[in-house]
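A note from the maintainers: we've had questions about how concatenated examples are separated. There is no special marker in the raw files; a new sequence line simply starts the next protein. For clarity in this README we add a label.
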Amino acid sequence: MPTSRINGLNMSYERRGRGESLVLIHGYPLDHTTWNEVALLLENGFDLVLPDLRGMGLSDAVNRTYAMADLASDIAGLLDDLRLQKVFIAGHSMGGYVALAFAGAFSRRVRGLGLIASQVLADSPERKAGRYQTAQDVDEKGVGVVIEAMATKLSAEVRVQSFAREVMQRQKPAGIVGSLKAMAERSDSSDLFKSFMFPVVIVHGDADALIPVERGREMKAALPHAHYAELPKAGHMPMMEDPLAVAQALRLFLK
């Protein structure tokens, strides 16, 4: 995979397909490979950019605190390096938080936004505290604590659980800790979301055990012009559980 030197770190990414530029941002604690099935369905029509966020996949980790704004800045730097000025951008779960931060900071570079199994709300105090506790556990015990806690919550499908376990096992502890703290400190994006005039696509599984489907329904209610696809029996990994439905939703950017 190619890398770009962005904000003092080596950022790894995959680029495939031809057409309109679409950035697909993975969730926590995963990497770009979670988009593989959807990418196969979109590469005829889209110039796909699939980055590994800092500390995840093959991208460098940093041993310092960072925020969603820093992750969004990494994406902007990658686009600069690839000479892409304006793009469609979609994110899964935490990747959605990064996409929202990018849309807030670099709105003129956004042609459309996709939020897959994500939300606009900030963490509750309890959830925030839980993320910091998990970060401490990873520091002390390694990534295994996250794998055991997350695998069955990501999806009810054994195939998806097995894939996620393999991906999570590859992740760097510093990347997981950094991501947890960045998510814990993220701002509420509700007002920002309501201001979006560009196309917005929301995809949510009705069996999501990590971000309830109500968060997707609330986003649709807050932004009536958004396209909302609710996927029956899908959990927190709709890009793997129902890749065709996710690809069809994202293809709406081309209409």
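[label: protein 2]
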Amino acid sequence: MVSIRHLICILFVTAGWGAMVLAQALEVGAARRDITPPEGSSHYRGESSGAHDPLFARALVLRQGEETGALVICDLISIARDLSVKARSRIAEDTGIPYTNVSITGTHTHTGPRYHPRSPSDVPDEEYYAHLIEEIVGAAVDAYRNLQPAQLQSGKTKQEGLSFNRRYLMKDGKVRFNPGFQNPDIVRPMGPIDPEVGLLVFQSASSNDPLATLTVFAMHLDTVGGNEYSADYPMYLSESLRSQFGTDFISLFGTGTCGNINHFDVSGPRPQSGHDGITRKIGETLAATVRSALPNLPKVNQPSFRVLSRTIFVPMQDFTPEELAWAHDDSTPVRYRERDFLQYRRKLKIRSLANLREYEAIPPSFAGDHWTLPLEVHAFRLSNDTAVVTLPGEIFVELGLTIKEKSPFQNTLVIELANTNIAYVPNREAFAQGDYEVINSRVQPGGGEMLVETALQLLDQLK
């Protein structure tokens, strides 16, 4: 049992440590590096036909006292575990930032390179892959070298009318994703959206010039189409803010939990893809919303920076030897009563699960009855009111909303697609409903809730 005297000592020591942290300035550094592949390289949709706009790795490094951490956000559809491990190891070696204090995420742009290997030996373009790692590390090192005392503003606003839940209840009682424009069989959306825009603004303490922003919004980056490289709508957000704050300004965009959220409005036909049709409109609308919120964002007078991470073991979906043989046999497409597209995705999922077992997963003898995936959750505390969470996978919006609702931090920004590629992470209710995202998921029902529980535990510990 802890005595009153011991408890008082603990409180004094804790208060003293907190006072030392608060007395030290928050330092911030930001940088970006071009990661655009050459024309003709591998593209998510085939071979690239060039670049509409460049792709970047953008890094944000924060330091207060002895605590240092980094968030690197890349214009990529996903972050393979191999890429994350190699880049984070190099960042730790070159800067001294602890490996566990670095999180690397992708924006999920569907007009980026298909670099992500299904296994360490499966890299479509080894030369580009090596260049990609070099530039991700370079962005973090540049940001570390740019560290300077900074003032933080933190808050949130709302963006209505851009995002839609893409899973719908149909008249036959089934749930279907993206059922088409004005489909007469649509009853209603099967879930919410998250209209919140989370914002962090960093200004130079000496000049008050804006250094960087972090904007987090939950909507898929699949508005462009075609085979040109493009960063999708965050590019227009970045360019709009840079036109106001200067070319040295860094705009980071973190993709919120949008595994079941995209930009398709099924209520009526209108332009739904292409830079001139919808992408520019989304990016510039979001930029206008951010700019209008900036003057009213509260200043953080007592920043308190700390990073925590935790790796948990999430059960993977299973498959039988017969299913694996079927997945590798294109001559026998019919096994389940589902659309041909879903049969195709199910085959790809089973092959992916087999590769995960070979290269990443942990066998049942280690942790329970299933193969498991080691998945890392990060939590960054910036002040008593502000925190950032990064999660692996394409997280369903309901899971992200739960973290925000139960977080002890008033302003909690939740970013998906961090440090490893595990495809969709639905909530339990969605697993029972089925369709595309469920068929394409790698984790067992409840895996998403495990990530939520871990994030909340880290946030409570930081608070």
